[in-house]
Write a structure and sequence with these properties.
heterodimer; A: 16 helices; disordered N terminus; B: alpha+beta; D-Maltodextrin-Binding Protein, domain 2; 2 domains; globular
């Protein structure tokens, strides 16, 4: 069974990159048109818009400077920074922690909990926000005692006080997204060959030792993968603040997040170039984050 | 790449979430034998939905597609986003839009959006003449009259006659008397309220009424925003103790918590400055205050200063699209929903069309819901709206909500927040392209 033994080292088999690449092509092909139409083309369009004016003339970094000086730019990016940091910390600590815990349990218990964790994720983003709007309103929330005693909130407006928002959005995002990631991490943990674990146990490692010193390093790449994807979605937060803006009858500004600001610029002020500049800012942030994580964790390294 | 995926998600989101996606294709009249009147699409808020449906019923030959949306209330920018998109795609405009935001026609008439059609010729001139002059003035942008107001929304003082009698308070005529009662209520009858300050439009209620110049378009087109003016600060100092002692809480009247706390069979709304459309719609409908309690009094006066001035909240306009393929039917629709006795005589708001207003007031006077007829003060207040508060292209109400209400809730005083309100409004005005005068 243990197929992890060295596959006969045919020196030619790995050298011949050409045919191998071709073999991969059919797997990528179905996604390629979508990537071009919905990914690459709009990106190029956004970059084009960001460096031009309404008439299509080249303006260099003017749009970037202009949007940077907008009075809503600083707060929006600050909000996003705080929110993303909180959310990523929550994700990494709890998703990995829970997945490790589950992996150590017996099959049925673990399956039940995986299912339970996954359920909230079945709610689409907007629906999840609506659920939370009720949860956060002390007059209807089943957890109103928590809101009153912990947050000191007697009315909805106090629950969603400006200082709480980043935490609230992080909580909503965690609640809807973590379950899916726990399942993924669990899958990742399952790829660890049981003999490795056995060997560790024979060497005297306890369950904690195995989890932290054996399993954790082995799923490092999956964690990096989760962080990259979550970082990108985190910085592009839109649905949650937009809905809370409406549900709170305007208490939360409609430019709370940077993506909302871009949306407002485009569709309220008809400033598509400014909106594109913010979109490109976000793209740059996402890329830098991804590159940092990829290089630091060796996500795409295949030789270890 | 990620960004664009999100961007693509935006369009359906706006439709699905913001617009409560209630495309009530109201009985798209099976037009017996080729309808000459064609079809129109109208966008209305929930309150105007019955009127639109009544039109459909009365006009089987016109195919009306009714779309309900958030009405652009509380300073939302739904319509700006939608019109931008329609303008960009060059199609999709509805024929008629109702907006809850009195500001909306100003930007709809602008070159950038260029949506509104002049109503001249679409609504019979004879009828148009029966809208009060200030109402028509508010709908006239750059010399063109491009909307008609659905209802007038002057603020008056609503009060609970039963409670006032029981507590032995006289109905106040000045803000000072009103505030004095507030101080008494706080000690004698805690839990009762004499107003609220947590609505998105509370500035329109208190600051507008006291002639606070924070939305005043000058003849040269700049906008004057001076929240440090004595007319703003004195109202703030009057309100602060009342906000603090709980008789004018910074809570929103449309939240479930508000109705729970202050409405119901044992109502706690002793007094409430509010617009005409609060009438039965809000007191009975939203707050569930039983019949025989509410009555109206004249707008409050500032310590003997004449003339009495009052604010306005809402008074939403109907706008006809200049892109309409069936503009005659669109005009007919707007004329009917703003003047027809079928919808106007018993509708929620004070009709702006004068003959309808007379009938509406008569009906209101006869309505057993009220402890005494509110008709007289409502009618008198119609002429008292202060004219120094202009409609602007940016929504100012969100600025009040997110710079003032959120902080009042946290215990700050309105007086301390006025500078931030001024700054916020100035930034919003500048972002919308206005020159701002800060004194």
């Amino acid at each position: 069974m243990s197929a992890s033994g060295p596959i006969s080292k045919h020196p030619g088999a790995t050298r011949k990159r050409g045919p191998r690449r071709l073999r991969g092509l059919p797997f990528v092909l179905p996604y390629l048109p979508l990537l071009i139409v919905f990914g690459i083309a709009p990106t190029i369009y956004a970059i084009d818009l960001a460096f031009t004016n309404v008439a299509g003339g080249w303006v260099g970094f003017h749009n970037f400077v202009r949007t940077y000086n907008d009075y809503r730019f600083g707060p929006a990016f600050k909000h996003i920074l705080v929110y993303t940091s909180i959310w990523l910390c929550l994700l990494v600590v709890f998703v990995v922690g829970l997945a490790l815990l589950l992996h150590g349990r017996a099959g049925r218990v673990s399956a039940t909990f995986r299912f339970l964790f996954y359920i909230p994720g079945a709610l689409a983003g907007a629906a999840a926000v609506l659920v939370w709007l009720f949860m956060l309103d002390p007059s209807v929330s089943p957890g109103s005692f928590l809101l009153r005693d912990v947050l000191g909130a007697d009315i909805f407006a106090q629950s969603i006080a400006p200082g709480n928002l980043a935490y609230i959005f992080a909580m909503i995002a965690f609640w809807t997204g973590a379950g899916g990631w726990i399942v993924v991490m669990y899958g990742a943990l399952n790829t660890i060959p049981p003999d490795l674990e056995e060997a560790a146990r024979i060497d005297g490692a306890g369950p904690i030792g195995i989890a932290l010193r054996l399993k954790l390093p082995l799923i490092r790449k999956w964690i990096a993968y989760m962080v990259i994807l979550s970082f990108a979605t985190g910085t592009q937060l839109f649905v949650e603040p937009q809905l809370v803006n409406q549900a709170s009858l305007g208490l939360v500004p409609d430019t709370w997040s940077s993506n909302q600001l871009a949306y407002q610029l485009a569709f309220r002020y008809a400033d598509f170039n400014g909106a594109a500049a913010i979109a490109v800012d976000l793209l740059a942030i996402g890329l830098v984050g991804a590159v940092l994580i990829v290089t630091r964790t060796g996500l795409f390294r295949t030789d270890d | 790449m990620k960004i664009n995926r999100r961007w693509l998600g935006l369009a359906p989101l706006v439709v699905a979430a913001a617009i409560a996606a209630a495309t009530a294709s109201a009985g798209a009249a099976t037009a017996k034998g080729g309808s000459a009147s064609g079809s129109i699409t109208v966008w209305v808020d929930a309150v105007r939905l019955p009127a639109a449906k009544a039109y459909v019923k009365a006009h089987p030959k016109v195919k009306v597609k009714i779309v309900t949306f958030d009405g652009d209330g509380n300073g939302a920018t739904t319509l700006q986003a939608k019109i931008q998109l329609w303008n960009r795609t060059g199609k999709g405009w509805p024929d008629v839009i109702f907006s809850e935001q009195a500001n909306d026609p100003v930007w709809m008439a602008s070159k950038q959006f260029d949506f509104a059609a002049p109503v001249k010729g679409l609504i019979p001139a004879k009828m148009l003449a029966k809208w009060p002059a200030p109402s028509r003035g508010q709908c006239t942008v750059g010399g063109r009259e491009i909307c008609v107001q659905d209802n007038l929304a002057q603020t008056v003082l609503w009060y609970d006659k039963t409670l006032m009698d029981k507590f032995g308070y006289a109905v106040p005529t000045t803000w000072q008397e009103w505030a004095a009662i507030g101080q008494k209520v706080a000690t004698e009858h805690p839990g009762y309220i004499i107003g609220n300050a947590g609505d998105s439009y509370s500035a329109w209620m208190y600051l507008w009424a006291d002639k606070c110049p924070i939305s005043q378009v000058q003849t040269n087109g700049s906008v004057r925003i001076n929240s440090g003016d004595s007319h703003c600060t004195r109202m703030a100092s009057l309100l602060d103790p009342l906000i603090k002692n709980g008789t004018t809480p910074p809570e929103n009247i449309f939240t479930p918590a508000f109705a729970q706390k202050y409405g119901g069979a044992d109502p706690k709304v002793l007094m409430m400055p509010g617009p005409t459309w609060y009438a039965k719609d809000v007191f009975s409908g939203t707050l569930k205050i039983p019949a025989g309690h509410m009555a109206a009094a004249m707008p409050l006066q500032w310590n003997g200063e004449t003339p009495i001035t009052t604010g306005q909240i809402g008074g939403g306009p109907w706008i006809i699209s200049r892109h309409s393929k069936n503009i005659a039917a669109a005009g007919d629709f707007v004329t009917w929903v703003t003047t027809s006795p079928v919808v106007k005589d018993k509708g929620p708001g004070y009709p702006s069309y004068a003959p309808a207003a007379t009938r509406w007031l008569a009906n209101l006077g006869k309505d057993p819901y009220f402890a005494s007829s509110p008709a007289k003060p409502l009618q008198a207040a119609a002429n008292l709206i202060w004219r120094g508060w202009s409609m602007v292209t940016y929504p100012d109400q969100p600025v009040w909500s997110n710079t003032v209400v959120t902080q009042l809730v946290a215990g700050k005083s309105l007086t301390d927040l006025l500078p931030a309100l001024g700054d916020g409004l100035a930034q919003a005005a500048q972002a919308a392209g206005y020159k701002v005068v800060r004194q």
